[in-house]
């Protein structure tokens, strides 16, 4: 006899909203990655490091690589978007930031449903993600 009992494991409206935004953000990020990679790979945008010189830097430690090529850390790539090998970071930033956007989007819905604890946790998650992305807390390089 088949089991006809319902499990009650349906996604709530905040989960549906989160997933919907995450899916759209993922597709936007991937599209940006494809476009910016094509700009780089087809030579439409001049690279910072010429393609014939890329392999000589592969074995370098990160610190030495950055120092040798005069590349900053953190968000310094934003000032180098005129180069084909840096513009692809836009797609990476979109993919990395979409979770924060998802959390921000569900906060009003959580408050409407009187889920104050989850709303505070979502807000704290946005704050932690923003703090981590800001580069204020530097660890390592």
Quick structural overview:
This protein is mostly helical and 141 residues long. The chain has helices at 13-41, 62-68, 89-112, 116-134.
What would you say this structure looks like, in words?
It is a single chain. The protein is mainly α and 141 residues long. It has one domain (13-134). It is 56% helix and 0% strand. The longest helix has 29 residues, at 13-41. The radius of gyration is 21 Å and the shape is elongated. The N and C termini lie far apart (62 Å). The model has no long low-confidence stretch (mean pLDDT 90).
Helix content: 55-70%
| Net shape | elongated
The string of secondary-structure elements, in order, is HHHH
What fraction of the residues are assigned to beta strands by DSSP?
under 5%
Mean pLDDT: 90
Q: Total helix count?
A: 4
Uncertain stretches = none
Termini separation comes to 62 Å
How big is the Rg?
Answer: 21 Å
